[in-house]
Amino acid sequence: MNIFLISLLFIIPIFLLLGRTRKSSKRLPPGSLGIPVIGQSLGFLQAMRANTAEKWLQERIRKYGPVSKLTLFGKPTVFIYGQAANKFIFSCNHSVLANQQTQSIRRIMGERNLMELNVHDHKRVRDALVSFLKPESLKQYVGKMDEEIKNHLETYWQGKQQLTVLPLMKILTFNIICSLLFGLKRGTQRDKFGSCFQEMIKGTWSVPVNLPFTRYNRSLRESTRVKGMIRELIQEKRVELEQKGASPRQDLITFLLSMRDEDGKEVLTENEIVHNVILIMVAGYDTSSVVITFIIRLLANEPAVCAAVLQVAEQEEIAKNKASGELLTWEDLAKMKYTWRVAMENMRMFPPVFGGFRKALADIEYDGYIIPKGWQIFWVIPMTHIDETIFPEPSKFDPSRFENQASIPPYSFIPFGAGPRMCPGYEFARVEILITIHYLVTQFNWKPCADNSFSRDPMPVPSQGLPIKVWPRNLS
Length: 476
Prior knowledge:
It is a single-pass membrane protein. The protein has 476 residues and is an alpha+beta fold.
């Protein structure tokens, strides 16, 4: 009897403990964390590169539902999807959900970039960037961007019979960034900057294993070089401002250096300028070049859409009303409504950014589950874009979806984010895309030379970089 009682004294606490564990584990999302550190990272990256990431996630959704746990890039993660998930990500209280990218992105770009900041710091830095990138400010840069794009087309497109689009679009967007955001002229300094930058961004989505042979390690090394070059630029701009009376709005770095608070102190620290310059570089270089490339790919495969862009969108009329050498204006861009609808439908089907991460600052109850403090939350863009309950016949290309944007449910179309987390470079990208497409469709014809496939690494990359045959277009 004594033995039985003693056994009960041991067994009952164990059952209570197991019961409590089962009860708490039920509140965690379903799924497996997999192997520590690695988890499902390799499978996900493989799916990205094979262009099956959406299917990979749809299988998770079918198996576990719209909320599930896994391990990505070294951290326990909760994947959430849907319109409600997007709203949660882009409008959640900053004290509950923090901006936090993967360790690889954070280390490569810097911890003081906008995607890592929260509450007051996020608002301060975002307000500074928006002040430079808002439409009222961008109007004065349309002509400068126009000149950069025409120079690019004269150098790399005119007189060519065949070319590869994506590398050329990366050259174009990099040169626009250097010219408009950094005031960096063509030459050895810009070329060196470009080669280091391209190596740096290759490891932004990688397993954070810092060994000499890894992509992550190479990107970290190049990140250190890029940050050093930007610091040198900052010192040059500071001297120009203080000693030579440079215009505060001549480029982004000069503008940020000139900003002062009520006490006369600089609004941004040097680290914040460096890290956010890198963020704008990555966003403006990679995303815009990918969007333009996929529009060119679309127009090559859809002659009727190309004809509509040329005529319905008044691109032909705009071109004919311009004197030789006359630059496009902000008013010209406002007429390109159909072209922009084509661009948005293209981004719906092929968003340049696949998704991102947030960090739970406290235990969060979401959709009946607990997301533990410190875990990262993984959200993706394409899943609502291909949801047939939101966009009927999602595989069909249909720019008319965006004729009445008010009819699109909020937090469903999110290539630039949404709400208070809307990308501050939205208008900059719009201007860049519209000017480029205007000159392409009014000056050139083209057709593809490779198959229509593409992969993600982590952004979409068309087969062989999209080689095309090209010949002049005669509007007359």
